[in-house]
Amino acid sequence: MIFRTEVDINAVEEKIQIEDSIFSIGSCFASEISSKLADGQLKTFHNPFGTLFNPFAINKAFQKIYAGKDYTEADLILANDLFMSLDHHSSFDSRYAHKTLEQINSKLQSANDFLQTSKWVIVTYGSAFIYEFLPKNKIAANCHKIPQKFFNKRLLSNDELRQNIAESIECVKDICPDDVQILFSLSPVRHTKDGMTENSLSKAKLLTAIHDVIPNYSNCHYLPIYEILMDDLRDYRFYKDDMLHPNSQAVQYVWEKFGNAFFDDETKIFINENSKIQSALQHKSSDEEGPKHQKFLESLKQKINTQRQKVKHPIFSDLDF
């Protein structure tokens, strides 16, 4: 008897290789996958504007990265004694305009440089809702804890969703190498503050728009991350205490399915060995000066050096050996 519905990610002919650059942008679930890529010591760059949720904000981020033009103080607003950009996540906010701009522009230029060499771009949408900041008549990527009365909340129309997704694809194709592959996914995290019915409508509109647009592009693919959580892992034991965000077990399950579909054999071996090293690095000894622990460190150092010889880009660069 079969007691669950398993959802697979279809294998692709084009595979991720160990020297490929992987750019990711979008919701907080995208951060989970990006973190896994980074732990595997692949070249990755994630969310230069901070966590973004809707296609409008993500498209605007791509356009800004493509233009490569620095933000200025005129692009910031002052609220709650903090200087902030409505295009960015609140993690960029600071008490001083120059500090906010330093963070924003540093990430912007790094993202521009990285995208120009990126073979893979992963886009994860979380919501079709947008918030229009009334004092500036501008759509905000995040609300930065500004009171709700200053915003008008609405759903993006179907045409707006399709337009922003298509413009993002065209922008990525312009800035990235010709063989870039773009992977789209829908975040499984429910936006319960919108309301359960409203969240379902938002997700449905996003899913429809993605599938309306990507068949027009041979280099675009859909990752059924949403379906894996909703239909395959449909049990609250796969969620964190908030009952909204997937837990580590669920993330690992998705990660393994993603790897089986998209990593070539060399990349799988490379990531697996790096995962073993990462686990070993967590080891704590009660006698760090003892000969047994020193032998362990020497063996670990040799394994890391072996891995370093496999790639041109720096790996385990935060270590002093």
UniProtKB/TrEMBL annotation:
Which SUPFAM superfamilies does the record cross-reference, listed alphabetically? SGNH hydrolase (SSF52266)
What InterPro entries does UniProt report for this protein, alphabetically? GSCFA (IPR014982), SGNH_hydro_sf (IPR036514)
Pfam families attached to this UniProt entry: GSCFA
Q: Name one GO molecular function term.
A: hydrolase activity, acting on ester bonds
Transmembrane parts of this sequence: none
Q: Where is the GSCFA domain?
A: 22-258
Q: What is this protein called?
A: GSCFA family protein
